[in-house]
Prior knowledge:
34% of the residues lie in helices and 12% in strands. It is of the alpha/beta class and 355 residues long. The strands form 3 sheets. A 7-stranded parallel sheet has the order 1-2-7-8-9-10-11. A two-stranded parallel sheet has the order 3-6. The longest helix is centred in the middle third of the chain and has 20 residues, at 124-143. It starts with 16 loop residues before the first helix and ends in a 47-residue tail after the last helix.
Amino acid sequence: MAPLTRNRAEADGTPTDLMVTHYTQRASAGLIIAEGSTPNPVGQTYPDITAIHTDRHQQGWRKVTDAVRAAGGRMFLQLQHGGRVSHPATTGLIPVAPSPVPLPETIFTPGGHRPAAVPREMTADDIRATVADFASAARRAVDAGFEGVEVHSANGMLLHQFLADNTNRRTDGYGGSVRRRVRFAAEVTEAVADAIGADRVGIRISPASTVNGVHEDDTDGLYTALLDRLKGLDLAYLHLVRSAPEAGWYRRIRAQWPGLLIGNPDLTDLTTEAVAGAAREMLAAGADLVALGRPFLANPDLVERLRVGAPLNPVRDRYFMYVGGAAGYTDYPALADQTSPSSDSMVALDGARVA
């Protein structure tokens, strides 16, 4: 199960009892990668997202991991710093980023959508402190019962902002050349691996993505440099966001990366046949595991549905984010509560390889 921000935490970032229910319902996933949690206050993106930098956060997450483990599941926690994807109306703080380049769109705050704020360029001290915050958050995550953590270096968040040439205009050791632009993401990952062990650490990347206004002029060179620096760490996995097996960069990364690779297909059709077919294509293209996002939102027993070919519940987008509550979060029915599928709908998939 891929990490999915749903804005159901308390205002301070502490997981709620509703979240305990949500994740426990989905414990049959081979691995749940829990939603992005900020390692420090300034890293918060939107209202009511989770965090992992206080004792209270840690205790809240412990309730989640204990319940999921009791139901037979295992979890990693994604560590996410939003960088410029933040707002003073949400955090009370000026966002930080590699350079003072604002998000080119509005951002959701407790008062609704607002124009993005110009972020403050991170100093060398800010960078060192943020690396330390990621390491500290990783230790808290393990103490909270997670098997490990996923470093979020994708989707236009802070680490991706350092990678991308349009958001990183620095002229010091963290900007300019590809080798320098990958430095921050590498240092964060190295610090996290040193804190809890590389076998407990994954990293998520989104090559060629333009989410949150990032742009990469040199995708191939950028990720070759990043993976060259990371592949000797023997990390738990590399997670590719919305990875298309036919993309040239996907095949190059699969050839370059010596460890476990998680593929995350870009799904537009959320039928059983389409999801199972996309997963098979991902596995055939060299992925070791498949991470699914939206199908897991609407189907707490997704693995069983794919295994037997049962129809999938449709996702109710109205309740996806910013609305809170159980609707569209914990009220999706399991297969046992619905009519059994007919035998002619069977499209069985090896569930052991679909996380």
